Amino acid sequence: MLKLTSTTDPLWIGRALANMDDILLDHAHCEKKAASTALSLIFRYPDRPALLLPLSRLAREELSHFELVLDHLERRGLKFVRQKPSPYAGKLMSIVRPLEPARLLDTLLCCALIEARSCERMKLLSEHLEDPELSDLYRGLLAVEARHNTTYLELAREYFSQGELTERFHVVATHEASILREAPDVPRLHN
Q1: Which range of residues forms the domain containing residue 40?
Q2: How many structural domains comprise the chain?
Q3: Nearest to 151 by CA among 5, 43, 34
């Protein structure tokens, strides 16, 4: 798993715990978007065979997580509704260069960073939640989130040298850290 260049602000977990309904709803939207992103990469890069099966599996897992979070929402009497998304992913993806093959590298690195940040935040939730069902939910997702991070990194290694990966990772990870420093105070998984 790649190392994040920043850690989550300690104030985030308090805001998250005080707004778990919002966090759960956002989490469902994040899982849905993660599945969509994996599928969009399959459509965008049909000529990159190493991407196809791993991303297909990843998309299915993300959809199963979406269903799992929907179940938790329902158990809490909450509905899955539209929610203003965190600007995190959009701002992170703004660093993606427009021309290939740089676009592919940057997209894979952004996806890997999103998965790594998800893993970090889910670990915090699993450690601090008093609700055993929710704590178990997040604890149970940790290994899969870490594997998704690794999947995106392995896919990048299929097409790019370690030197290219390392150099660009530092740029993208620094960008990701700056986004979190400037994030609005809204309860979201990636805020």
Answers
A1: 10-181
A2: 1
A3: 34
- Position 154: which residue type? E
In this prediction, residues 139-161 reach a mean pLDDT of 96
51-61 residue pLDDT tens: 999 999 999 99
- Residue 85's pLDDT is 86
Amino acid (one-letter) located at 137: L
Torsion angle defined by CA atoms of residues 95, 69, 142 and 151, in that order, rounded to the nearest 10 degrees:
-50
CB atoms closer than 10 angstroms to residue 21: 12
Q: Collapse the DSSP code of 48 into the 3-class scheme (helix H, G, I; strand E, B; otherwise coil) and give the result.
A: coil
How far from 176 is each of 60, 144, 169, 187, 191, CA to CA, in Å?
A: 26, 21, 10, 18, 11
Q: Quote the tokens at residue 35.
A: 């599945």
